[in-house]
Specification:
Distance between the termini: 59 Å
Shape: globular
Number of strands: 35
Helix content: 10-25%
Radius of gyration: 27 Å
C-alpha cells in the first residue's frame, strides 16, 4: 500500500519486457510495483481483488467525501477499479464524484486536470460524462463505455469495470497499454492522487484463467429449482415476446417461478404459458396464484395457502406442497416486487420491515401464519434495491427500522443467524447484474434476488442467464436464440437450485439419482433414450410439443432403454419424458 508522500525512488529494473506487468507511478516521488491480470467478477464480493496496483490517499483531507483508496486490475476485456470511501454513498445518484482517465498517457491531449490529459470524464452521480478527442468532445452515458459496478445499493466500497474495446465517435477509448487515473469529489473536494501527483497504470496483457460457462441443467432431480423473472410490462401476454419466454423456461425447467410486472396478466394466463413451455404430461397442469397487483407465483407442486404480506404492496407469500415421498416439509416462497427507484427508499424500507415481521411471525406460534420449525423459506423477485443499503440489511438480518409499525426486529433464520443473499454470476461471464437497458442512463444493476433460510436449505447451483453473450455452440446445445432474454425483458432470468435439509428418511438413506439420457440432441432421425433407476422395469416414454400436445408415446417393460425413429416429424422443439411409479424426468430436445 502506498501513501501520498515520502517515497524514495525504487531502482528496480525490469529486465524481461516479455513479462506482463502493471505499475503505478507518481511524479516527483515514485514507486513501481508489479501486478497481474485478474479474473475479477463484478458481483459485490471483493475476495478476488488480490495483487492489484493500489493507491492510498491521506485520510481526513476531504471537505465532504473523503477518498481513501483505489485498486486497479484488468483482463482482456475490462479495466477494473475498486474505490474505497470514508462514507456510504449511492455511486450513480446524488454525488459529485468524478473519474478522469488519461487513456493515451499524453498530458497534451484531452481535458487538462491535475497534470494529466483526460480523454474520458465520468460524473458518477449524474450518470454521464464526456469523451475528449482532437479539438472536440462528446457527451456520453455510462452504458456507452460498457460501465458496470457493484453493489447497486449504497456502500463505502465499489468495484467497477470499463470496456477496453470501446469506440466513441469512431475513435478507440484506449489507444495503448499505459493510462493515468484521477478521482475528484466535486470542483473543490478531495482529490486522489493529490495535486502534483499522478498515477500511471500499465495494462497486463497476460490471460487470466478463463471463465468456465455454467451448465444449465439441474445436477440432481431432488433439488428444487426456483426461477424469478420480471416480465417487463405484461410480457407473458405480448405476442411478440411469448415465444422467447417459453423457449427459455423450457430450457431452464424450473419447479417454481416468481413472475413480476404481470399487471394485466391473470394467474390462468401465466399457468397456460408455462404449460406450453414445459408440459407436465399425464393431463397435469401448473398451479398459479396472483394476490397482489403484479406478481404471479407458478408451481409444478400444489400451492396450499397464500398470504398478502403487506396489503397495498407487491408481496405475496405462498406455501408450496412439496412431494411427501421426497420431503418432510413444505416450502414458503415470498414473491416480491418492491417499490421502484431511488426515490422509493421510504416505501421500500417499509416493505423490507414488513417482510421481516412476517417471517418472525411465521417462526412463532400464533399470529397470521405459523410454520413448523425448520420450514425452508425464500424471498424471490425484483427487489429494486437501488437505494440505501439498510433495506438489504433488513431483509438479511431482520433489523427493522420502523419498529413502531412492524415491531422489534430479530435475526430471521431458524438458527438465529442472517439469511443468505444468493449472489449469482451470469452463465457466460463474470458479471452479476440482472437488469440491463442500453437505452437508459442507468448502468446494469443487480436488482433481482433470491434470499433464503440457509440454515435449512443449501444452494447447489445459481446463475443468471443472458443469451446474447452465449457462444453459438452453447446456444445450439440448448436450443436457444441469441436474442431470447433481451427480447423477452430488460430483466434477466435468475435461477437457484436448492437442496433441502429435511428430506424424508427414505430419501436420505438412498440418494441415488435417477438418470435420463436422450441422444443425439439435436435429433435427425433415430433417437435413443435411457432411464437409470434400480427396479424400474415398466417405463412410459412420451414426446410432447411445446404446447403440451402428445406426439408419441411408448411403453417399455423389462428394460430401461428406448430406440425410436423420429425422421417423419417436423423440425422444432419437443419434450421427451419418462414416467415410472416413483419418478418422472423430462429432457428438452431439438428436432432438425
Amino acid at each position: 500500500m502506498v501513501g501520498s508522500a515520502g517515497f524514495g525512488i525504487c531502482k528496480q529494473f525490469i529486465r524481461n519486457m516479455k513479462t506482463s506487468f502493471a505499475v503505478f507511478l507518481f511524479s516527483l516521488t515514485g514507486a513501481w510495483l508489479s501486478a497481474q491480470s485478474l479474473p475479477i467478477a463484478i458481483d459485490s464480493q471483493f475476495d478476488d481483488w488480490t495483487a492489484t496496483a493500489q493507491f492510498a490517499d491521506g485520510q481526513g483531507d476531504g471537505n465532504n467525501l473523503d477518498l481513501l483508496r483505489f485498486d486497479v486490475a484488468n483482463d482482456g476485456n475490462y479495466l477494473f477499479l475498486r474505490l474505497t470511501l470514508n462514507d456510504e454513498i449511492l455511486l450513480t445518484n446524488s454525488n459529485d464524484l468524478t473519474l478522469f482517465l488519461d487513456t493515451d498517457n499524453n498530458g497534451l491531449t484531452g481535458k487538462a486536470v491535475n497534470g494529466i490529459g483526460a480523454e474520458l470524464e465520468v460524473n458518477f452521480g449524474d450518470r454521464e460524462g464526456r469523451f475528449y478527442f482532437g479539438n472536440s468532445s462528446l457527451p456520453i452515458n455510462l452504458n456507452s463505455v460498457k460501465f458496470h459496478h457493484q453493489p447497486t445499493v449504497s456502500s463505502g466500497v465499489f468495484e467497477m469495470a470499463i470496456g477496453r474495446d470501446v469506440q466513441l465517435a469512431g475513435f478507440p477509448l484506449f489507444t495503448g497499454n499505459v493510462i493515468r487515473i484521477f478521482f475528484r469529489d466535486g470542483v473543490a473536494g478531495d482529490m486522489m492522487p493529490n495535486a502534483g501527483q499522478t498515477f500511471t497504470y500499465v495494462f497486463d496483457n497476460a490471460t487470466p484463467p478463463p471463465f468456465q460457462p455454467i451448465d444449465l441443467q439441474k445436477d440432481n432431480s431432488q433439488y428444487i429449482r426456483l426461477l424469478t423473472w420480471n416480465t417487463l410490462q405484461n410480457g407473458l401476454d405480448d405476442f411478440d415476446r411469448k415465444e422467447h419466454f417459453k423457449r427459455v423456461i423450457g430450457v431452464l425447467q424450473p419447479d417454481i417461478i416468481t413472475f413480476n410486472e404481470c399487471w394485466n396478466v391473470t394467474s390462468g394466463m401465466a399457468a397456460t404459458l408455462v404449460n406450453e413451455a414445459l408440459p407436465l404430461g399425464n393431463f397435469q397442469s401448473w398451479n398459479a396464484v396472483k394476490l397482489d397487483q403484479g406478481n404471479i407465483t407458478v408451481s409444478r407442486f400444489p400451492i396450499l395457502q397464500n398470504w398478502l404480506v403487506y396489503p397495498g404492496s407487491r408481496l405475496t407469500a405462498s406455501l408450496i406442497d412439496l412431494p411427501d415421498g421426497l420431503y418432510s416439509t413444505d416450502l414458503l416462497v415470498v414473491n416480491a416486487h418492491l417499490k421502484c427507484c431511488s426515490d422509493g427508499n421510504y416505501a421500500r424500507q417499509q416493505e423490507a420491515d414488513a417482510f421481516a415481521a412476517f417471517i418472525l411471525d411465521a417462526r412463532s406460534p400464533g399470529g397470521v401464519i405459523t410454520l413448523p420449525e425448520g420450514t425452508p423459506f425464500v424471498l424471490s423477485g425484483d427487489l429494486n434495491l437501488v437505494g440505501w443499503q439498510q433495506q438489504l440489511t433488513t431483509l438479511l438480518t431482520g433489523d427493522i427500522v420502523y419498529t413502531g409499525t412492524f415491531g422489534p426486529g430479530d435475526p430471521l433464520d431458524w438458527d438465529g443467524t442472517d439469511l443468505l443473499d444468493v449472489i449469482s454470476l451470469q452463465t457466460d461471464q463474470r458479471m452479476a447484474y440482472t437488469w440491463r437497458s442500453d437505452f437508459s442512463d442507468y448502468p446494469p444493476s443487480r436488482i433481482d434476488f433470491h434470499i433464503c433460510s440457509n440454515s435449512v436449505m443449501q444452494v447447489k447451483k445459481a446463475f443468471t442467464l443472458q443469451t446474447e453473450i452465449m457462444s453459438p455452440e452453447r446456444l445450439t446445445e440448448y436450443g436457444l436464440l441469441a436474442d431470447d432474454t433481451h427480447s423477452a425483458s430488460d430483466h434477466l432470468p435468475k435461477v437457484t437450485d436448492f437442496e433441502l435439509d429435511n428430506l424424508t428418511e427414505t430419501t436420505n438413506t438412498n440418494r441415488l439419482e435417477p438418470g435420463f439420457e436422450v441422444w443425439p440432441n439435436p435429433i435427425s432421425h433415430t433417437v435413443y433414450a435411457r432411464f437409470t433407476w434400480p427396479g424400474a422395469t415398466e417405463l412410459h416414454f412420451s414426446l410432447f410439443r411445446p404446447d403440451g400436445m402428445l406426439v408419441r408415446q411408448w411403453e417399455v417393460t423389462g428394460m430401461q432403454e428406448l430406440e425410436a425413429d423420429l425422421g417423419d416429424l417436423p423440425g422444432g422443439i419437443y419434450f421427451f419424458s419418462v414416467q415410472t411409479e416413483m419418478n418422472r424426468k423430462v429432457v428438452r430436445v431439438v428436432k432438425r
